[in-house]
Please model this.
Amino acid sequence: MNPTALIHIVDDDADFRDALNWLFDSRGHATQTWSNGEDFVNEARRLGPNWPSAVVLLDIRMEPLSGLATFEALKAMGCPWLVLFLTGHGDVSMAVSAVKHGAWDFLEKPFQDNVLVDRVEQALDSLQSEDTKRAQRLREALASLSQREHEVLDELLQGHYNKTIADHLAITPRTVEFHRANIFDKLGVSSAIELAHQLGRYGLR
Model:
């Protein structure tokens, strides 16, 4: 189980939302609740593209943004969070379709608390497996960096610009750009901010 992952609870029924929040809190899980899909999507957009690990419990029937529309918005921005739909009997066919299009799973209301917790913890285990693989790939990529690339990396993590790095290392800005591009390529990132986030997330800084 991934103890650092957050469980987002997105449901427009305040009582149901609070009950789920209490349930997962009592089992030692960190949660955040949302009363509508629009606010939740805006938060996901704010956090991207370096999303922290999370599982989403998403009510399929919400207004004005439905659970399905919320899920599609997450997919459109490339958000990797695992989504488990919570659905009434009449919405099972929609939930099945959502699973075929990338949702983690769905549960039909009413459900037993233990069944829901078990399903969410399975999702958390899956996240931990992916995080472990990603951390290992980063370790291997870091090990492949040259001595000079490590020096440039250290400067980048301090927030220094290319010209400052060039001055510190007594090389040209063009050479810094060359090493910077190699570092980004090897570590699979597109910016210094993403680089810092990934290394910090996996404790590799």
